[in-house]
From TrEMBL:
It comes from the Bacteria. Coiled coil: none annotated. The lineage of its organism: Bacteria, Pseudomonadati, Myxococcota, Polyangia, Nannocystales. Keywords: Ion transport, Membrane, Transmembrane, Transmembrane helix, Transport. It comes from Nannocystis punicea. This is Potassium transporter TrkA. InterPro entries: CASTOR/POLLUX/SYM8-like, CASTOR/POLLUX/SYM8_dom. The chain crosses the membrane at residues 21-44, 85-114. Its main location: membrane. The keyword Transport applies. Residues 274-365 form the CASTOR/POLLUX/SYM8 ion channel conserved domain.
């Protein structure tokens, strides 16, 4: 490479100086102005062209410097000059130089102020909050998550949430105001990458009560989450106080690696199995989605874990009737073991904590006043009917499909069948039906929004219909629109045949649920909302994650909606203590009921009443259901 010329060197140094920012640019303009004034003042002094002062003596060098500065600042000053024409033209040149310099200065200042305002708009100052919740990332789930966090923190003065995302701050602030309205919870937004240490330092992780890592859309979502967890773990080490971390994970392979990064105490939520379990369970029990939404939402009744020393020595069965406003569902033993539920004759020991469904933490109190139960209002015990093979129609090509079929296979009787319809021609390879024990799977390629395809499926001949959200290569709105079109066709087909088949569909945006209500589908699983509800619950109480995992697992006790006639006589005037007694005789826990007459009434939670006051009188009709925690 040839040796750089003097001009190249000067240009290189000039470029470097300009790149240093506004301060360097202003300094350079000041130097140019000073050089201009010094050169002209020296020239005037050496040539004797400087004007004479009031005493007849030539103006001093210092005075010439001052005159030059005034001409540079105010070009109008040249009009009051006196002296030779040469002097006047020299000062005019100084004025022109001043015009150039100060015009450039105005441009630099304008650009500098613009940069300052842009930095302020992006929010680059360090957050001075304590005991706040940090959300890393911005996805479609953020609206439901913020709503739930606002509800959870409604009774906490000064509660705050800090969001760090690669998203425009002004846009985030506008959306937050739209979602939360007048909520008392303060939301602070910062633009930045959770993967960058300097950006992560803005949110003050050392003082945070919990950190929520949102999973972005796209095939590399888990990679981003894992890198974010590594950054959070390192930031926690620097702060000397690792925060409580909650993160969405989409692949089981990533889960074990993430656990190594953040430890066993972190709340890592594997979202695809969560959605598929609720979808399958709800498809088999209409109304179950409403029960889960009520349990997971802070606006309704949710799980609380509290010490109840007054129960020491009492059996778990006696504890069921010790609460008027809460429903006992399990025990955390003094040794840290979780029992949901324990044996009914197990006695509470000192240090045990109850797991209860209640309106708030201050309503978990021993205020039960059970009344004697008249035997004639209770239904006789019947043995469980043997399950029969079922036919299930699954519409939509989705990444959840293998999980949905696996979950379905865990519940159905041997000899059951499932017909899967989707557009992808590699559906059979994706399903992996050979791993299923009770279900044989058939595959048909077709567009589930095409009426001709649906007419050829014998829709009325199925026991259940599941409609999955087809997210691959589609926006959220497009996905939900396709789901609604499919539901409209299904409802019309069933109406024409005079048949009724339970339909459960997955949607992404909760705002589309009201629009989708015209399809008369039995249940909707709003997957984004469901994940947001679970994340918010676990962020507020990390032990809730294990409780929810127990409820959603095919093993052990789960939530069922069973016919009310199996518990009390239809139409009998009873209180809920009687329903709890009837369920206890079956080894089950009654936690609510669903009225069939309000199954499509959104204003009354689609007929679901969870954790009712046990002393209130109710009449359950033959078509009503009791919400129980049972093994089958």
């Amino acid at each position: 490479m040839p040796r750089a010329t003097l001009r190249q060197r000067l240009r290189y140094r000039f470029d470097n100086a300009m790149a240093r920012g506004v301060g360097s640019q202003i300094a350079m303009l000041a130097i140019v102005t000073l050089l201009l004034i010094l050169v002209t003042s020296t020239l005037l002094t050496l040539t004797g062209l400087s004007p004479q002062g009031g005493d007849g003596e030539p103006v001093s060098f210092g005075r010439l410097v001052w005159l030059g500065l005034m001409h540079a600042i105010d070009p109008g000053a040249v009009g009051s000059d006196a002296g030779s024409w040469t002097f006047l033209f020299i000062m005019l040149a100084v004025s022109f130089g001043g015009i150039f310099v100060f015009s450039a200065l105005i441009g630099v200042l304008t650009g500098g102020f613009g940069e300052i305002l842009d930095r302020l708009r992006k929010g680059r100052s360090v957050v001075i909050e304590r005991d706040h919740t940090v959300i890393l990332g911005w996805t479609g789930k953020i609206h439901a998550l913020l709503t739930e966090l606002a509800e959870a923190n409604a009774n906490r003065p000064g509660a705050s949430v800090v969001i760090l995302a690669e998203h425009d701050k002004v846009a985030m602030d506008d959306e937050v105001r739209t979602v939360l309205g007048d909520a008392s919870m303060r939301v602070v937004t910062r633009t930045g990458s959770p993967l960058v240490r300097r950006d992560l330092d803005l949110v003050n992780l050392g003082e945070a009560r919990s950190v929520i890592v949102m999973s972005p859309d796209g095939p590399e979502a888990d990679t981003v989450v894992l890198k974010t967890l590594l950054a959070v773990a390192k930031a926690g080490d620097r702060a000397g106080k690792p925060p409580h971390v909650v993160a969405e994970i989409k692949s089981e392979k990533t889960l074990s690696v993430a656990r190594m990064v953040v430890g066993d105490a972190a709340g890592l939520i594997l979202t695809p199995p969560l959605i598929s379990r609720v979808l399958v369970q709800t498809g088999r029990q209409s109304g179950l989605s409403v029960v889960y939404t009520e349990l997971l939402s802070f606006s309704g009744d949710e799980f609380y874990i509290q010490a109840q020393p007054q129960l020491a020595g009492k059996t778990f069965r006696e504890g069921l009737f010790a609460y008027e406003d809460s429903a006992l569902v399990g025990v955390y033993t003094a040794a840290g073991e979780r029992l949901m539920p324990p044996a009914f004759d197990r006695r509470f020991e000192p240090g045990d904590q109850v797991i209860a469904i209640s309106r708030d933490d201050d309503t978990v109190i021993l205020n039960g006043r059970p009344t004697p139960v008249a035997e004639e209002v209770l239904a006789p015990l019947h043995p469980h009917a043997e399950p029969r093979p079922e036919r299930t129609l699954v519409l939509g090509e989705s990444q959840l499909l293998p999980l949905v079929l696996r979950e379905l296979d865990a519940y159905v009787a041997p000899g059951s069948t499932a017909l899967v319809v989707g557009e992808a021609r590699h559906l059979a390879a994706r399903i992996g039906g050979d791993a299923l024990r009770h279900t044989s799977v058939q595959v048909r390629v077709g567009d589930v929004t095409d009426r001709a395809v649906l007419d050829g499926l014998d829709v009325p001949g199925f026991d259940n219909i599941l409609v999955l959200a087809e997210t691959e290569g589609r926006t959220q709105e497009m996905t939900d629109s396709r789901t609604m079109i499919t539901l409209l066709h299904l409802r019309d087909i069933l109406r024409r045949h005079g048949k009724t088949v339970p339909i459960t569909s997955e949607m992404l945006d909760g705002q589309n649920r009201e629009l989708a209500a015209v399809t008369e589908a039995d249940d909707f699983i709003i997957s984004n909302t469901l994940v947001s509800l679970v994340v918010s619950q676990v962020s507020e109480n990390q032990r809730i994650a294990a409780v929810l995992d127990d409820l959603l697992s095919p093993d052990g006790h789960e939530i069922y909606l069973k016919p009310a006639r199996d518990y009390v006589q239809p139409g009998a005037d009873v209180d809920f203590y009687a329903v709890v007694e009837a369920a206890a005789r079956r080894g089950e826990l009654a936690v609510g009921y669903r009225l069939a007459a309000r199954a499509h009434d959104s204003e009354h939670d689609y007929g679901v009443v969870l954790n009712p006051r046990k002393s209130e009188r109710i009449r359950l009709a033959a078509g009503d259901r009791v919400v129980v925690l049972a093994e089958r």
